Amino acid sequence: MNSNPGIIGIKLGNMQFFTDDGNVTRVTVVEAGPVTVIGKRTKEKDGYSALILGMGERKEKHTNKAQIVAAQMVNQTPKRIVKELRVTEEYAAKFEVGQVLKVDEIFTVGQKVDAQGRTRGRGFTGVMRRWSFAGGVSSHGTHEYFRHGGSIGTNMTPGRTLPNIKMAGHYGDETVSMQNLKIARIDSEKHLLLIEGGIPGAKGSLVLVRHAVKQRVRKAGR
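Now predict its structure.
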């Protein structure tokens, strides 16, 4: 279980800017705030440690009575986005309910992070788009078989279609993580994170940014 520090945010889109040495850096802009701690999980009560984060104000017409009561119990307003973030017990002790997370206190410029988002749904697609199949040959008498997947099983043994065969089906709309992305710039006043490269998800979708778990450590002399 990944228990590294992190924060939730909204993907605003992509842009580029020039660095001090004149190079162009392509980044994804994430609006990570203001994010408020609206609850905590403890090992004594829940068996694990976590921070319950809230972002954005929920409209009254979209809020039921249970959500209103739960927010009032911690002297908070109902949040539009609520996400539980697993963290270590020591890290959770640094925050109190109602405290606003600051991006410049969690991340630093040049740090490696992991970004998780939900990819755009592409509906029912064929094997050429879903699995990058080459398709069938277009000569030697081929007829209406240009974008098919080919053979999916055997005749005698085992005489059935094996499981996990790549076929047409639902494509996209799945959780994907991009690892070891670099933070290019931080705007603490606007709660913005500029992360090099792309992050899964459409504009306006929810993303989760954490400290990298597989960061490579360069050895001396390399």
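The radius of gyration is 23 Å.
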